[in-house]
Amino acid sequence: MEQPWHQSIVAAEALQSEAYREVRRRIFRQLAESVIYEGIVSVETYACGENTAFIMKGTDSKGQAVSYRCVGQTRLSFGRILLLPDTFLIREAGKEEAEAYSLRLFVEEILQVQGAASDKLSTFAEELEQTLLKDTLAQYVCRKEAPLLSSQHGEALEASVMDGHRYHPCYKSRIGFTFADQMHYGPEFGEDITPLWFAIRKEGVPLTLHPELSWDCLLEEELGTAVLYDFQLKLSSLDCEPSEYTYVPVHPWQWGSIMSRLSGELQTKHIVMLGVAEDRYRAQQSIRTLSNRTSPMKASIKLSMNLVNTSSSRQLLPHLTVTAPVISYWLQNVVASDRYLREEARAVVLREVAAAAYEGFGGTAGDPLYGAIGCIWRESLTRYLRPGEASAPFFALFATEQDGSGIPLIEPWLRKYGIEPWLIRLIDRCAIPVLHLAAVHGIATESHAQNMILIHEDGLPARVALKDFHEDVLYYPSFLPQPELCPDWKEVHKRYSDPAVRANFEAERIEPLRYLTLGALFFVNLAELAMLLADRYGYQEQRFWELTAERIHRHGERSPQWKARLEELNLFTPTTCVERLTYKRLTSSQVGRMHEVVNPLAPYKAGWTEREENHAISG
To answer: How high is the mean pLDDT in each 10-residue block of the chain (619 residues)?
Structure first.
């Protein structure tokens, strides 16, 4: 697909294909599920057999009444609304009714609700339409030659799972990408990506390192002696002193996005383009993180991009970026100090070993390039895997084969080990260590599907790897058993002298840790798995959450201290708060961005009663 005209033809074919209709229906389902669940629209309901019909009412451009009708269920897992998988929305206007076809029309007719801003509605509609375009292209092109998910693991599996976020309706918006960019840089297409390397004068780009590493050693390991020498030679040829510069890779798409604003820095040699290195990379699900395809043992690189995906900016803000190695070092020491995490759970913290982000040379955040260049170097999981181990990102556990069979990736594992024995292992080896870190050490990680990796032995859960900490760690200072290990944020970046900025990491109460743990680990990860097991295999959601509660209580009974800490974290509260991801796209207000939902763990607060564990897999 080298020629632009060829890509245009493929894009047109995709938009006329069955994939377009399937993707449009999926987006409508997730859109309807979220606006109903988040209470954004008023809904009329009536029984439809064992299911529920939902009717959302609005007005068309002429002020006439219009409604959208769909059929689904209110699930046990956090009260989630889930439409039937083969259903679609029906739009009714007057005496006419037909399948809903326009996402923008739905936004205009149904989402004109109190608090919604007109500019936000337009932007949201654009994100929905771009998701439709980007996912249609991926499904149409990649399904034809997609290898079976069950034949892959690690980084290859992460790139091959094309589902995206299963709740957010803008799960693949990638605002900033054209359709051609999508085919060049989207992870589903598996294209090689070659970053461009720049030298930036040190005063313009703060750099932090893991205390056990040196910058020179990292560069030599990542670039190789020959490339590093060539880069130094180029700087010297331009009368620049190499020791006065920091080397930072830039995504090739990002270079095209920012080059017009770099002319002054290039003229003054504050920034020098060095060229490319020898290694080729492949995009992970987050788009901006690239895994090394040439040398899998080398670090992955997370690069700043002027891109919006799932409604989040993909730039690397300097004050957040430079925390990455510091937080990694902290978590590494916490895990090393805890015998359970270190020896039994054998949890892996994928260290972010270096971070650099462009602040500019004016010293203010007003620089138009502020945060537009940046990189976080993260260890490869490959170096941690033992013989016989393989890995799968947590979101792959909900994925199904793309060959038309619809078989879940985990089905062979469930058949081999049994649903409940496999599930016990998954909870014990992956969920409990995350809970332990939050309850016993007072540190909650945003362990949603993209930030957790299952390490398994022929499908049998063995342990968990956690990653991506620079923005997604929250701790409760008075809950820290080892406060001396906690970073001194004021030394990390000058902006952390402001308590409001430190609040990104510090919680004043225990409740935010509970919300983050229940919202990321349970609402995103385990709830999706609970609903998949119920719908595909008849494994009841009630039993899923009962079993999960049993394993939590069982862990607490091992130590009075652990039990007391788990009780204080209070995971069995009747309700919890989760983000209203769609509501956030419709309003500029900071109020109401969380909503209270039922907690499926609540009925099992009483404690763990000794039960037969004949179904558990020992070891």
So the answer is: 73 92 96 96 92 95 94 97 92 93 96 80 93 93 76 78 85 91 90 96 94 92 95 96 96 94 91 95 92 95 89 83 95 96 97 94 69 95 95 91 84 97 98 97 88 95 94 92 93 91 91 94 94 96 97 96 95 95 86 92 76 48
Region at 482 (left for phi over 0; alpha for psi -120 to 50; beta for the rest): beta
DSSP notation for 27-51: HHHHHHHHHHHTT-S-EEEEEETTE
Helix (H) or strand (E) holding 543: helix 541-556
Determine the topology of domain 4-145 in CATH.
TATA-Binding Protein (3.30.310)
Sheet with 271-276, side-by-side order of all strands: 245-250, 196-201, 271-276
DSSP SS3 for 257: helix
Question: 224-227 — which CB contacts under 8 Å span 24+ positions?
Answer: 224/277, 224/278, 227/277, 227/278
Q: What is the pLDDT of residue 362?
A: 67
Alpha-carbon span 58 to 35, nearest angstrom:
13
* Contacts with 609 (C-beta within 8 Å, 6 or more apart), sequence order: none
Angstrom distance (rounded) from CA 56 to CA 91: 10
Which pLDDT does position 606 carry in this prediction? 80
Instruction: Quote the pLDDT of residue 612.
Output: 38
Tokens in use for 561?
């201290």
pTM: 0.93
What's CA 562's distance to the chain center, in Å? Answer: 29
In terms of residues, how long is the chain? 619
> If you search the block for the tokens 């770099």, which residue do you land on?
262
CB neighbourhood size of 117 (10 A): 14
Domain residue limits, the chain: 4-145, 179-378, 387-604
* Spatial contact of 200 and 358, defined as CB atoms under 8 Å apart: yes
DSSP state of 483: G
164 three-class SS:
coil
Q: Specify the CATH number of the domain 387-604.
A: 1.10.510.40
